[in-house]
Amino acid sequence: MDLDERVASYLEQAEQLARDGEYGRAEDFERVAGQQAAGLGYGRAEQLALCRVRATRLRLQQRDAEAVVQLRDAVAIADGLGDVLPLPERCALLAELGVALHHAGDHAAAVGAFQQSLAVAFQISPSYWPAAQTRLLMSFPLRRLGRRGEADAALREALTLARELRPPGADKLIAQIEAELGEVRTSHGPPLAGPAPAPPRFPPATFAPEPQAPSGFDEVAYRAALADLDALIGLAEVKAEMKRMAELLRVGALRAAAGLRRADVSLHLVFVGAPGTGKTTVARLFGRLYHALGLLGTDRVAEVTRADLVSGYVGQTAALVNKVVDGALDGVLFIDEAYSLVRPDSPGDFGPEAVTELLKRMEDDRDRLAVIVAGYPKEMGEFLATNSGLASRFSETITFADYAPDELVAIFAAFAAQADYALDDAARAALREVLADLHARRDRFFANARVARNLFDDVIGHQAERLMAGGPGAAPTREQLMAITAGDVRAAAAG
């Protein structure tokens, strides 16, 4: 569901201000967001987001009846969106409505909203873990209505689900459920009177992904990842280091299976090297390797930069980091040019906040997340020194050396072969001369494989110009269309 970026920014600020208790300023940002949305034609996505942010503020102000109005409007808009609204968001929205109704004193309607939320949760998965929290919340209005048997059943189902799935924060959730279960079973008499008991605060609507348990060692996937590593051009030191780590982690898994203690090896890594040396490619291979070893639930690699993690507004950076990390759980989070997160010459920059939040999540979610940071060697050294906790979080630093001239020739030839071009001996010799010269004159910003790629693009441009020199009627043969000559290479280098 697409939401206008500016509207989203205003609403994020409004929600954070409300959580900080600055309700007047929060309403000001809501108003600006509404004006921006109106200028765009007031799409349903914007209407829904506005209703939910207003409801959050109203609930924090304990204006529960007004919050219910906003949330009911949000549910109506969500119904109109149909399949456009993701099921987890619909599930959370109905649960939020249930909490607001309970606090507003409409306990029967609250139970109905929670039941609708659970029906949506079942569509997602019979073992969708937020349903455990929803059942806990539903037990409060059930008890208020004197339906203690149903409250007991809801809590028992919640406890079973939480114990089986063990979501993040499971111990705290299980303790809450057990406490309420004990309260229900020791309570007797008519429905409770007086102010409604306050249930645990329901979390934001966007849940972290459902935990995906590692499936154990997959020898086929393990060997495939290492075979693809071997197939990469150059990178001899990187390959040796990755294989060493793979063997260490594999032995650790075998020790655990044999009932022995395994070394506590962090999955977080630092990659240092110039651009175009294969850092992103190797990060993806680590994602596959960790998954094949049974250390992570998926082989996903989320590739992000500073723009994905640092906000320009007070209080928004931590939320951005948590959103990105939640999306990367059970896989690898790869942060290229990670040193850009910290800008010592920019007072008031929110990068350090991003680093602090990232460090917390790296520790809290160490069993579900591998973070790989990458960048130039000098800058990465300075970055790791900016926070005392950074260097200790990363187990290894892997250095990606510049490619040698012969390796750059091989990379160029691989680009050519993939695009159905061919190099004869003379063209290959000219290519080596050109790349050796570029390599000899390189500085610390030399782009390695990207240099070979850019040269290839220039070469085929000159080849096309040569083939079409005879005019529109030129009809080169298949062999001529494929052939790259020494002249094409030298013309590209000269141009």
From TrEMBL:
Pfam families: AAA, AAA_lid_6. Residues 265-405 form the AAA+ ATPase domain. Keywords: ATP-binding, Nucleotide-binding. Signal peptide: none annotated. PANTHER family: AAA-TYPE ATPASE FAMILY PROTEIN / ANKYRIN REPEAT FAMILY PROTEIN, AAA-TYPE ATPASE FAMILY PROTEIN _ ANKYRIN REPEAT FAMILY PROTEIN. Belongs to the CbxX/CfxQ family. This is AAA family ATPase.
